[in-house]
Each structure stands twice: as structure tokens, then as C-alpha cells.
Design brief:
Keywords: Membrane, Transmembrane, Transmembrane helix. The chain has one domain. Helix content is 38%, strand content 34%. The strands form two sheets. Strands 1-2-3-4 form a four-stranded antiparallel beta sheet, covered by helices on one side. Strands 5-6-7 form a three-stranded antiparallel beta sheet, with helices on one face. β3 and β4 form a beta hairpin. The chain starts with a helix and ends in a 9-residue tail after the last helix.
Length: 167
């Protein structure tokens, strides 16, 4: 009887470990796909991704030398991609939209908004959407970090310390 209980316990443990290994492998594969997608976007601009950060189903990358920001999101039926030319951007802000459900306010969307020079349309990148993911997983902090990074890059560019390399 004890042998069967031990054997059953070991089988359950092995199954749990196997599931975690599969989940980790799946996540690593998804990360590789997102990074590759960012690199494809950069290649299209004749630049390279100098730094990147990945969310659950999206990736952000930047080429600080040539001032491009790259965004890709896995939509299950394909990718949504954006390339933002930061030369034409005045500043970047974080927008957090909340939805009221009863007396509680829940985070609905977290976006980065790129405000261009006058006469051009603003760009919006959605990092979190409650319709696709139930709870935020660090996206508000990630949005804040990236907005600060972009604004610092824009401030440095205005002071003349960064310029676009002719390619």
C-alpha cells in the first residue's frame, strides 16, 4: 500500500515538473519570436535593436543612435508592428485608462503616447489591454520606464549630443 502511494506521488510530481518545463520552453520560444520580430522591424529601417524589453505578448525595442522605437504584439492571428521615428516626436507620456465596475476602478489599458511636432498625428502603443490579459503584469512600470527613456533621449537630442547616422 505504501509503495503504491509513493509511486502515485512520484508520478504526480513528475507530471507537474513536466508541465513547468513545457511552459518555460513555450515562453522562451515566444520570447525568441518577439525578439526576432523586433529585429526584422529594425532591419527594415536599416538600424538595429540596441535594447529591448518583452511583455507577455509584446516587445519594445529601441535604436538610440538613429532614434527609432520598435513595437510588436502577437495577436494570435499575426503580429501588429509599429516603427516610431523619434526624430519627429516632441515627448512621450504614459496613459492609464481605468474602467469603473460598480464602486471599483480597474485598469483597462496602459499605453505609451508619442506626441509629435505640430501638424502630425500622435502615435499610441498599447502595452496592456484588459480584453486580452486579465491583470497587468508589470506593464504600468514598464510604460513609465520607457517613457522616461524616450524623453531622456529626446532631451539629449535637443541638446545636440545625439544625431541620426546616414545609412
Amino acid at each position: 500500500m505504501e509503495f503504491r502511494t509513493t509511486l502515485f506521488g512520484l508520478a504526480i510530481l513528475a507530471l507537474c515538473i513536466y508541465i513547468f518545463v513545457l511552459l518555460k520552453r513555450s515562453r522562451k520560444n515566444k520570447e525568441k519570436i518577439l525578439i526576432n520580430q523586433l529585429q526584422v522591424l529594425a532591419t527594415g529601417q536599416a538600424t538595429q535593436v540596441e535594447a529591448h524589453e518583452l511583455g507577455l505578448d509584446f516587445g519594445l525595442g529601441i535604436d538610440e543612435t538613429n532614434r527609432y522605437l520598435f513595437y510588436t504584439r502577437d495577436q494570435k492571428i499575426g503580429f501588429t508592428n509599429k516603427v516610431i521615428d523619434l526624430v519627429a516626436v516632441k515627448n512621450c507620456t504614459v496613459a492609464i485608462q481605468k474602467r469603473q465596475v460598480g464602486k471599483e476602478a480597474y485598469m483597462d489599458k496602459v499605453s505609451l503616447i508619442f506626441h509629435p511636432e505640430p501638424g502630425k498625428a500622435q502615435e499610441r502603443i498599447i502595452l496592456f489591454d484588459s480584453e486580452s490579459t486579465a491583470l497587468p503584469n508589470g506593464e504600468p512600470l514598464m510604460a513609465k520606464r520607457w517613457a522616461e527613456r524616450v524623453n531622456e533621449l529626446l532631451k539629449d537630442a535637443k541638446s545636440g549630443s545625439i544625431f541620426r547616422v546616414a545609412g
